[in-house]
Amino acid sequence: MEELNKGLREFRGAVHADASVADRVLCSVIGFGEEPEVVQRMLPMDGLVDLPAPGACAGTNFGPVFTCLRSAIDSDVGALAAHRVRVHRPLVFFLSDGQPTDPVTWPSAFSSLCDPTWEHRPRVVAFGVGDADEEALSRIGTFRMYLSRDGVRLGTALIASVMHVLSTSGPPPGRTLS
């Protein structure tokens, strides 16, 4: 958890260092183990706080978190649209430290999340720490995949991915979030 919080603090600092980036980045956090839990609703980066240590869990079910993500994206994009904020494709950071305990069922939930016919399907950056399943993460990382055991820090991966998306999505016409 300390690695995650350190990476989020580094990311928050980098976002705030550039006002044009801070104006375009919102963040929500969904934790997961056996079941997903919205830890922090979508907020500007200055609202991001350190995350609490997770409780004990018996497994790491990927499928339910992908279903939860799709629902959260629909809800968040709808809320932004109500405020006349246009959203490009969301960017999801999927962090795992282990093996999926639902290896047969998670791929269908992930396919639904990344359905090419869904207008708000996210780009997914997968980041593995500890005993993360590299094969599963390579399937999940539709945009990029990083492993901490390769020496990549979480904050660096977050910053690089967001900056790439922002630099390739063009300037914001009106109120647009990438």
What do these coordinates show?
It is a single chain. The protein is α/β, with parallel strands linked by helices and 178 residues long. It has one domain (2-172): 3-Layer(aba) Sandwich (Rossmann fold). Helices cover 39% and strands 20% of the residues. The chain has 6 helices and 7 strands. It has helices at residues 2-16, 19-22, 62-82, 106-113, 134-140, 154-168, and strands spanning 26-32, 36-44, 86-87, 91-96, 123-128, 144-147, 176-177. Helix 1 packs parallel to helix 6 (154-168) and helix 3 runs parallel beside helix 4. The longest helix has 21 residues, at 62-82. The radius of gyration is 16 Å and the shape is globular. The mean pLDDT is 86.
